[in-house]
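REQUEST ID: PR-0412
SUBMITTED BY: lab tech R.K.
PRIORITY: routine
TASK: structure prediction, single protein chain
INPUT:
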Amino acid sequence: MTIKEKKEQIQLIIKDLFFLSESDYPWLISEKFSLDDVITEQQIDTDIFFEKLTHPIDMVDDFMRTQSEKYQELHDFLKENFTTIFITKHGRIKRPLIIELKDEENGKLYLTTFSIET
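STATUS: complete
OUTPUT:
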């Protein structure tokens, strides 16, 4: 599968997928992302990150169940199609969350969203 095909598949998975914090932000995907101006403040373990999203403590309604299922689908796809999954959080209150993906052919994709933490 080419990086373009992987991007298209991820776009389908992240449609209507939100990072739920104090606000709900959608995920965006791109083939380029400048990390030059971003200072990494926190690296996040991939398995722990997705475990919290696929098994949330407060899964009380259909929306949460659907989000959890979409995160499981995303995690499975990323593990099957990328050799590197690097997750970082930056900033203070409105924190950019970046998932850098690299495949076996050195193709790169970036998933980005925001986490609100007050």
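NOTES: Residues 59 and 65 are 6 Å apart (CA to CA).
REVIEWED BY: pending
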